[in-house]
Amino acid sequence: MILESGVFLQDIPGHVLYARHVNSETSEIGDVVVYDEQDSEFKSTIVADNGQLVFEEAYEGFKFTLNKGQISRTSKRTKPTTTALISTAPSSASARRHVLKRTESAWRGDREMNVAQLNERIREYQRIDAAQNVKNINRLKVEIQKKFSIPTACLIFGLLGGLLGQIVRKTGIGVSAGYSLAFFLIYWIFLIAGEDLADRGDVGP
Asked: Which of 37, 38, 48, 174 is most buried, by CB atoms within 10 Å?
């Protein structure tokens, strides 16, 4: 949530807040108007010289304190508006729907599982029906091989990069970029094509 000077803020549930002066470092606000719409029967308007607005994680909501002002309350039943002077008016607003929650999930995709988990998934497919799930089994076997082949490829690229750097350092950046692009394309074609062939069972994982 961003509170800006001279802009109506509607992010606080049940409230509309306007502050002419905002100190983002101290959360202090000045020349404040707050429209409190939490109560369906009573509507309140608070005008204050200054105050402070903070978000408290433990409370899961906003707490603000307004100083030196007045509060006006209007009811649907009683038409007249009652106004009272205030020296300090603390208020709060729950914002549980606005708080990010950490969630835990036991489900993992192929790339998120380790080798033991992938092997266990393969055994599950084999127990259900190995012939019907051959494509899924091949896919998981390929993923196991990628756990080793991709880190190995990184090491090889690192070694090749050092060697190529020594060889082509006198030929200019164009030749170096050409060699790099060629190696990358070869690697990418083998990775994509090999994975596709292995998924179909045309080659071993």
From this structure: 48
Longest CA span, the chain: 89
Give the contacts of 82 (CB within 8 A, at least 6 positions apart). 72, 73, 74
Backbone angles phi, psi at 42, to 5 degrees: -105, 135
Asked if residue 118 lies in contact with residue 110, where contact means CB atoms within 8 angstroms, the answer is yes
Strand partners, 88: 67
Q: Which is higher by pLDDT, 64 or 80?
A: 64
Centroid of chain to Cα 118: 27
CA–CA separation, 197 and 189 (whole Å): 12
**Separation between Cα atoms, residue 68 and residue 48, nearest integer Å:** 5
End-to-end alpha carbon distance in the chain: 50
Question: Tokens 């055994």 appear where?
Answer: 123
Determine contact, residues 89/69, Cβ cutoff 8 Å: yes
Q: Which of 76, 65, 18 is nearest to 43 (CA)?
A: 76
- Asked if residue 82 lies in contact with residue 73, where contact means CB atoms within 8 angstroms, the answer is yes
Percentages of the chain per state (helix, strand, coil), in multiples of 5? 40, 30, 30
Mean of the pLDDT values across residues 35-41?
Answer: 79
